[in-house]
Amino acid sequence: MKGEEWYQTDEVAQEYDAKRFSRGGRLIDRREKRAVLEALNPLEDRKVLEIACGTGRFTVMLAERGADIVGLDISSAMMTQGREKARAAGVADHIEFLRGDAARLPFPDDHFDTVFAMRFFHLADTPAKFLAEMCRVSKGQVFFDTFNDRSTRVLYNWLLPMGSRLYGREEVERLIDGAGLTLADASHDFVLPYGFYRKIPNRLAGAFRSVDTAVGDTPLGTHLASVSYWNAHV
C-alpha cells in the first residue's frame, strides 16, 4: 500500500481529521458521509465491515444509526482516534476496531451484510485482490470509491508526495466483474479535486461547490468527475 509507514504514525493520526476536514474540507466530509448513508441505508441491525476505517468518522456514524460494525485498519494509531470517537458518541459497544490486512480478511465467507471502503482504492497496489476479499466476506453489498483518471485529479496528483492510483470507468467495471460482483449503480462528483477545497476557507467553499455541482450535473461534468462511488451487489 502507498504511504503505509507514513499513515501509521501517531502524529499523522492525531492531525488527520483536522488537516483534511477543516476549512473547505468540511464540505468533503459532509458529501462523503451522505454518499455512504445513501448507499448503505437502512442500517438498523445490519452487520457491516469497513475496510480502512482510519479515525472512525464513518464507523461511528453508522453505529449511531443502528449498525453493528467492524472497523478494520492497518494503523493502530488511527484506530485509537476511532475508539475515542466511539466512546464520546456512546456507541463503543456497537463497534469492534480490528488491526488487519485487507488482502487477507480474518472473517469467514458471507459474514457481513455490507462491506465498504472509502479513500482506500487510490492507495491500493493490488485492487483486484482487495475487492475479491471484500466480495468474499459480504453476502450482499460492496461499496467503494475511486479517484478518476480523466479529471483535474491528474494535475493535483503531480503535487502529492506519494501520488494516487487513478481509475477509469472501464477498469473499475472489470474489477467489479472479476470479483464476481454486479454493479447496481454509480455516481460521480467533484470536478474540482479534494485538495482544492482543503486549501480554501469554509466560507468560500460553498460558492465554489455550487459551480462545481452545476458543471458536474452535465455530461461533461460526469466525464471530468474526480471521484466516483460504486455500489455493487454479490
Task: Provide tags for this entry.
234 residues; Methyltransf_25; methyltransferase; eight-stranded mixed sheet; methyltransferase activity; EC 2.1.1.-; transferase; Rossmann fold; globular
Topology:
Layout: H1 4-7, H2 10-21, H3 25-40, E1 47-51, H4 57-64, E2 68-73, H5 76-89, E3 95-99, E4 112-117, H6 127-137, E5 138-148, H7 153-157, E6 166-167, H8 169-178, E7 182-189, H9 194-199, H10 202-216, H11 219-224, E8 227-233
Parallel strand pairs: 1-2, 1-4, 2-3, 4-5, 5-6
Antiparallel strand pairs: 5-8, 7-8
Query: Which architecture per CATH?
Result: 3-Layer(aba) Sandwich
CATH superfamily: Vaccinia Virus protein VP39
CATH topology name, in short, is Rossmann fold
Order of helix and strand elements from N to C terminus:
HHHEHEHEEHEHEHEHHHE
Number of helices: 11
Q: How many whole angstroms does the radius of gyration measure?
A: 17 Å
Shape: globular
Low-confidence stretches: none
Distance between the termini: 25 Å
Structural class: alpha/beta
Mean pLDDT over all positions? 91
Strand content: 15-25%
Largest sheet: 8 strands, mixed
Strand runs, count: 8
Keywords: Methyltransferase, Transferase
GO molecular function, one term: methyltransferase activity
Domain Methyltransferase: 48-139
EC number: 2.1.1.-
Question: Could you give a quick summary of the protein structure above?
Answer:
The chain has helices at 4-7, 10-21, 25-40, 57-64, 76-89, 127-137, 153-157, 169-178, 194-199, 202-216, 219-224, and strands at 47-51, 68-73, 95-99, 112-117, 138-148, 166-167, 182-189, 227-233.
